[in-house]
Amino acid sequence: MRLGIVRGHVTLNLAVDAFRGKTLVVLEPVTMDNLRAANGRGGGKALVAVDELGVAEGQMVAFTEGREASNPFWPKAVPVDAYCSLIVDALNIQP
User: Fold this and answer.
1) Residue of 33, 45, 36 lying closest to 5 (CA atoms)
2) Could you read off the pLDDT of 8-61 as tens digits, one per residue?
3) Fewer beta carbons below 10 Å: N end or C end of the chain?
4) DSSP letters along 29-78, please?
5) Does domain 2-87 have CATH number 2.40.50.220?
6) Domain residue extents for the chain
């Protein structure tokens, strides 16, 4: 699981049936340096994730990737690479 910042939403012209009623968001993963600096920057390569939480632009979320990203859709086989797992409310980083 990694942390990322929501940078925008994706709108599809033709949707995959498994994604109907779900939102796709653009996430920018957060590097540890930017996390410690608390500067609101991500620093990682952006990716698209499925969101069922209703996240807003600028919010920090935790997301899963790979095979784990498709677990919420089980037993259906869904072509998903990343999934928003939770919205980060507070973060406490120890040195």
Assistant:
1) 45
2) 998 877 777 877 788 899 999 999 998 888 888 888 899 999 999 999 999 999
3) C
4) EBPHHHHHHT-S--BSPPEEEEESS---TT-EEEEEEGGGGGGGGTTS--
5) yes
6) 2-87
